[in-house]
């Protein structure tokens, strides 16, 4: 998530929306990203143990499980984790979650449903998290954008 935030802060500077890097913001995103990365490592590991086959039905099942269990949990950890690190009042975090969840979830589905098909079909299980992290760079840039740039438009 750190790389995505740095990319987004470059975009913000280019468009005159900020004067420099907010390294504390990047540090907070890095902390949340580390928590999410650890959670995903164990999630994908258990998913592969439970559903080791690579046929279309099993891959579809993995994608549905990923999008219905992992994605909402990740969005929750992203919004509330950053909110806690930023000392945001609980009511404001709830409001942000309500306003941004559907947008984030929709983009997540658009990005990760096709990429997870490739991941589950062709990528060796020990490299799955690496593949997801490579795909995530632009998605993480979007998350930083939705969190810090358009927050006033959505909340």
Automatic annotation (TrEMBL):
It is found in: Membrane. The chain crosses the membrane at residues 64-85, 97-115, 127-146. GO terms for cellular component: membrane; mitochondrion. It is a multi-pass membrane protein. GO terms for biological process: mitochondrial ribosome assembly. Its main location: membrane. InterPro entries: Mpv17_PMP22. Signal peptide: none annotated. The keyword Cytoplasm does not apply. The keyword Membrane applies. Keywords: Membrane, Transmembrane, Transmembrane helix. Belongs to the peroxisomal membrane protein PXMP2/4 family. This is Mpv17/PMP22. It comes from Cinara cedri.
């Amino acid at each position: 998530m750190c790389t995505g935030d740095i990319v987004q802060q470059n975009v913000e500077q280019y468009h005159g929306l900020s004067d420099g890097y907010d390294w504390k913001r990047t540090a907070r995103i890095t902390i949340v990203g580390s928590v999410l990365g650890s959670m995903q490592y164990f999630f994908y590991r258990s998913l592969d143990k439970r559903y080791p086959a690579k046929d279309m039905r099993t891959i579809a099942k993995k994608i549905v499980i990923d999008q219905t269990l992992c994605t909402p949990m990740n969005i929750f950890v992203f919004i509330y984790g950053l909110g806690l690190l930023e000392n945001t009042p609980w009511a404001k975090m709830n409001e942000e979650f309500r306003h941004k969840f559907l947008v984030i979830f929709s983009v997540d589905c658009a990005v990760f449903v096709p990429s997870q098909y490739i991941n589950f079909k062709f990528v060796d299980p020990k490299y799955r998290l690496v593949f997801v992290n490579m795909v995530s760079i632009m998605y993480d840039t979007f998350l930083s954008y939705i969190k810090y740039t358009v927050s006033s438009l959505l909340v």
